[in-house]
Write a structure and sequence with these properties.
It contains no helices and eleven strands. It is mostly beta strands.
Amino acid sequence: VQLVESGGGLVHPGGSLRLSCAASGIDFSSYAMRWYRQAPGKQREYVASISSVGRTQYIESVKGRFTISRDNPENTLYLQMNNLKPEDTAVYYCNAVLMKEFWGQGTQVTVSS
């Protein structure tokens, strides 16, 4: 099983990034998928999730700015992040959950002027 995140980088406040998570070795369409993030010196926190049938949820601080989506034929999870703020700076992790749980290696997002 592999979950490989990409799309992170350095962006100015107010900017946008689109994260991707390419999954292999799992029946992707059956899994609930989540994004987590971990800022320096803080615990990893849940950001957003999308169920196998496309139901989405978000933490309050990203509602209206982030959009989680999935492309089941391409086995890929996305996180569109708009109007980024310095407090969004973190390593972002992809997570897959069904009977087991799998994690990606993370991608760094830095929001700074």
